[in-house]
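Dear all,

This email documents one entry for the complex benchmark we are building for the journal club exercise. For each entry we list the sequence lines for every component of the assembly. Then comes the predicted three-dimensional structure of the complex as a token string, followed by one or two observations. Please use this as the template for your own entries, and keep the labels exactly as they appear.
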Amino acid sequence: MSHPPLAAEFTANRSRAHWHDKALWFVREKRDRMANSVPEWEQLREHASAIKMHTVSQLPLYLEQFERNALALGVHVHWAETAEDHNRIVLEILQRHSVKRIVKSKSMLTEECHLNPFLEKNGIEVVDTDLGERIVQLRNEPPSHIVLPAIHIRKEEVGECFHEHLGTEKGASDPAYLTEAARGHLRQKFCQADAGITGVNFAIAETGGIVVCTNEGNADLGVSLPKVHIACMGIEKLIPRVSDLAVFLRLLARSATGQPITTYSSHFHGPRPGCELHVVLVDDGRSGIIQSSEFRRSLSCIRCGACMNTCPVYRRSGGHSYESTVPGPIGSILAPLKDSEKHSSLPFACSLCGSCTDVCPVKIDLHHQLLAMRGLLGQRRLIATSKKLSMKFVAGIMKRTWLFNLLGKFARLSLRVLPRFAIYHRFNPWGRQRELPEAPAKSFRQMYADRKSTASNPGDKSK
Amino acid sequence: MSSASKNSAAREAILRRVRAALPQSTPLPELPASGPWQTFEDPTTRFREVLESVGGLMVRVPDVGAADAWLRDFEPWKKSATRLTVIPGLGDSTLDLNSIDDPHALEHVGFAVLKGHFGVAENAAVWVTDADVRHRVLYFIPQHMALAIPASQIVNNMHEAYGRIQVGGYPFSGFISGPSKTADIEQSLVIGAHGARSLVVFLIEEW
Ligand code: SF4
């Protein structure tokens, strides 16, 4: 399905859509407060962007350096060209250790590769240990947000889900009570697991180590008990130096949830004694994106989710309406890069307001890329006829000044004189959830012309 | 194909594709630890404020003995049947860490007193490493935790922090800021997700 009908489904429940919008705006506001408390915020964003651009320009070098250093630390390094290769590699490691149960912390990459269903098909129990991810896993749905996987679910629904699966009291919906129940349930899983899988926030070429950030401590607990730790990462997660971490750790949590830093920022450099640490480096289309000068910067993403929290479309349409592992503005670029036909509606789920670009900690020019992606889809003839026709129609008006002026006059007049029922009816979707603005007396052109003549008036006292 | 040769074939293929159309090289910014980055007139006060805002508690004491006295009066400590400390004179241990080979045996630790190296004022993070504990899981599994650092060891920001550590020297090292938490249910903050339910950071003046 495309974005508009799925979004319509989501907004049909108005109170839920409104609540969802508010919940995300709350996170956006926390982010603003945090960003404002750091005087060099903009400089940090500049640095982060420059580090990422530099890294991608020398990526082969840094990948080799990372591999060399990781091997020296006793880390097993694997390379996967595709999602299938990645899944096969992970399965082989698990089978070699006769692993039956694994615990997994949040990793968008493994979502992207559909690792869970693959492992389950092969007889391995997979438990997502991030609370939000566990909730959506028990409900059998994908996450709707990359940082807040269960942001679309009400606490009463979590209560029902936990009542069914974890045996909590019927009707209980207190977040503290439910979290406590999940803690108990997941502790068991942590202690029974034969291996732990994590994502990677940053991989350091200079040392061969990886950094994983969580608030719950689930990644750390998951890899500190069993003997096998598998860390899965896209090749774009690399950074050159340890000192670069300062920039990214200062930006990440502040941008993501409005915290000064995540509770745990763990640096892994080699296995525990007698244990194994595996790192799987995954391409899965990334090398293709590097070759595109237009979309290369989308690979700088550190998956903070800030662009989603601020996006007026995401907030009102919910993450599932994107049908993509990564939703929101950045997802609307990454998804069509992967499969332009399937995700052709996403770049249009955007008003080009540019708010995403303003908050992005690595300064990805998100709204420019979204516009460029529309162009690309046009070239590939993936834009619906209705959309193309209406574009042509509007372009026809815009090209003719006299027609544009005439219709402008007509619109201002009709807004003023027509009765309500003639404006707010089912053929005018613009009037469906909003009051149309009061019509100004003059057009912008007229106001501008008036101003100009006053300014150049020789009798003006300011001269 | 064996998995080793598959691996090197995939490696070559990926590197070849990445090399195919590399953008022009752009410079890597200099990031001197000395800044100019955000600093604070009184880093310790900032550390305390931020730690409290993330659910932790800072306790400044003249010496280890005073920290010990404070701890023994702390409810979570008093209520914990299984306790562990790696700092002589600060709390006591009900089990012998050195006799434990399997970290699973630490599942029921109620309270652990561990060593931190320094704190960061801007985000209340404390630097820890596995050189100080035999099992790194001790930073994550206890129900409650205290970290002790010398009071003089508070840096302003993360640049200063990374300027003074050898990250690559430890299989595990990291920053811990406050107790574990989640807001995954309707954005309401709950302290005590999977890790510690409370975190005390002792700043010890004479150590
Ligand atoms: S595109 Fe930018 S704002 Fe969006 S998730 Fe990635 S880093 Fe965050």
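Observations: The longest strand of chain B covers residues 198-206. Residues A 301-307, 330, 359-362, 364, 366 surround iron/sulfur cluster (CB under 6 Å).
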